[in-house]
Amino acid sequence: MTAAGTITETAVTLTIDGRPVEVAEGSTIHAACVEAGIDTPTLCWAENLTPVNVCRVCVVELEGSRALVPSCSRPADDGMVVQTDTARVRHSRRMVLEFLGSGVDLSQAEDLQRWMEAYGADPDRYADEDHPVERVEEPVKVQDELYIRDYSKCVLCYKCVEACGDDAQHTFAIAVAGRGFDARISTEFDVTLPDSACVYCGNCVGVCPTGALQFKSEYDLRQADEWRPEDQSVTRTVCSYCGVGCNLELHVQDERIVKVTSPADHSVTSGHLCIKGRFGWQYVHGE
User: Fold this and answer.
1) Where are the chain's structural domains?
2) Which of 51, 36, 44 is nearest to 84 (CA)?
3) How many C-beta atoms lie closer than 10 Å to residue 106's C-beta?
C-alpha cells in the first residue's frame, strides 16, 4: 500500500529466454511472453475466453519441470526460468500441428498455417502411396442464412463451447459429445439447431480459429472464389439496435458488409455480441 493509501499491484519476475520479465501476480506464462514480445502459438487460447489446455501448441520448457507446461494457463511465479524455443519445445509444437493437419482440413486456419510453416510441420509425411492421409470428411451443414458448420475443419479446441457457456452467452447449447475418434461438437441429444437452446448469437463463430464455423455470407463468397480479405476494409462503429453500446467491426468488400465482428478488448462486449449485432446488418443494403 502506498503512502496515499491505495493498493498497489504485486508483481513477480521470471526469466524467459534469458531475459527478466516482470508481470502482475496471477498472470500466466503466456501473458509474460506477450509482455516480453515473444510470439507464442496458440489455438484453444483467446484473450476473452478461459484457458482449457486442450491443444498444447503453447507449451514451454520450465526449469525443474519434468514435462513441458502449457503457457496459456500456468501461472507465472517469481523466479521461474522459462525457455520458449528449445529443440524439445519446437519438436512438441511441430508434432501437435502435424497431428491436427493430418486429421482435419486446416486450409482456412491462417494462424495455424503460419505456425506450420515456421516449425516445418508436414502432416502428409505420415502417408505413403499405399496409405494416404485420411482426413475427416463430412458434408457442410447449412440450416439457415446465418452461419454454417463444417466439421471437417473442427480441431475440438473448445472455444465455441466456452463462448456458448460461462465465458459469454451462458446458453450451454453445445458441448463435446463422444469419445476418442467419435468426439465432436454437438447440441444436446444431437438435435438440430432450431430445436436446441441456441440463440444464434454467433459467439461460437466469432471465436472459431479454423473456419469450421463461419458466416453464411463468407461461406458463399468462398464457394464462388470471391472471398478476398486483402480487399476488405474494417470499420469500427456502435451497434444501432439498443443503448448498451456494443462496438462492431464491419468487414466490407465491394461496398457491401460481408461479416461483423467485435473487438475482443472492448469493455462492453469483450468480443461477444447478440444475434442482432452479429447478423442483423442486412438492412444497411436495403433500398
Assistant:
1) 141-285
2) 36
3) 23
Q: Determine whether 217 is exposed, middle or buried from the number of CB atoms within 10 Å of its CB (0-12, 13-18, 19+).
A: buried
Q: In this predicted structure, what is the pLDDT of residue 2?
A: 41
Cell readout for 22 is: 516482470
Q: What pLDDT is stored for residue 182 in this prediction? A: 85
All cell numbers assigned to 101? 493437419
Cell reading at 135: 482426413
**pLDDT for 3:** 46
C-alpha cell at 108: 482456412
- The low-confidence residues of the chain, meaning pLDDT below 50, are 1-8
Closest CA to 215 of 243, 184, 250, 244: 250
Per-residue three-class SS string for the chain: CCCCCCCCCCEEEEEECCEEEEEECCCEHHHHHHHCCCCCCCCCCCCCCCCCCCCCCCEEEECCCCCCEECCCCECCCCCEEECCCHHHHHHHHHHHHHHHHHCCCCCCHHHHHHHHHHCCCHHHHCCCCCCCCCCCCCCEECCCCEEECHHHCCCCCHHHHHHCCCCCCCCCEEEECCHHHCEEEEHHHCCHHHCCCCCCCHHHHHCCCCCEEEHHHHHHHHCCCCCHHHCEEEEEECCCCCCCCEEEEEEECCEEEEEECCCCCCCCCCCCCHHHHHCCHHHHCC
For 11-69, what is each residue's pLDDT tens digit?
999 999 999 999 999 999 999 999 999 999 999 999 999 999 899 999 999 999 999 99
Give the sign of the dihedral formed by CA 211, CA 215, CA 220, CA 226.
negative
Fold of 141-285: Alpha-Beta Plaits (3.30.70)
- For residue 206, give the C-alpha cell: 466469432
Would you state the torsion angle of the CA atoms of residues 16, 46, 217, 153, taken in this order, to the nearest 10 degrees?
80
